[in-house]
Amino acid sequence: MNRVVIAAVGGFGGTAPSLVDKAQALYSGDVEKWLTTTANPWISVACALGAISVFFVIGAAIALIYREQQLQKALLLGIGAPALIMAAAQGSSVNPKPIEIQPSASLFSIVGAAYAQDGDRSLPPRVELKVNPGWTQGECQTCDIKFLSGDGQIISSEPLSASPAPGAVNVPLGTETIVLSGANANSAAIDVRSLGAKLPQTQGPVTLDVNVNRSYWNDLSRSFGAKAVQPYDFSVDVAR
């Protein structure tokens, strides 16, 4: 059998798992979510085509390496490795990502006051969380904020309403980590204990502005089968 034909059949087999995944994403509405939430949908499409091309090369290479002469077996060989790659990617979990605090922008705000204590700066025992309704309205049906203790236990969890005026949420005593999730974004963790060095040097109100930013690395990860990955990542800024 002609090597070009064998390579083409193996390559098609390599793309098959990815094409099935893309069809499922189209049916479930995932494609619409990824393409309509960015100003540059062509980058998302390029990531998908790039992944399909890589799977084609892998499938073709395996069929040629094994010197398969039967088209059916070449197809099955081509399917094998890409299917394993996508299965591994789908099985991987996405843990809340620790995020670095930067100076300033804004979608919702954690508002409190900073105090000096023996030369160290820390957040007060109670902090208010205020949410900009422009983000939650219509976009954040499943958004929530979890407040964790030092041992990782959930102290409380607050859903973010999609109403025009969601109001403030109190950060409970003992909170050491705040986990943000929703808004088509990967979950992110804010370490409250590490905020001291990031706070302004003057006493008074402190605002942490939280944004979601599109990362096309997420598009690439999703194209290789990581279904748990979302289009956006959270970022947090200290308002100056």
Automatic annotation (TrEMBL):
**Which regions span the lipid bilayer?**
42-66
Q: Which UniProt keywords apply?
A: Membrane, Transmembrane, Transmembrane helix
Q: Under which name does UniProt file this protein?
A: Transmembrane protein
What taxonomic ancestry is recorded? Bacteria, Pseudomonadati, Pseudomonadota, Alphaproteobacteria, Hyphomicrobiales
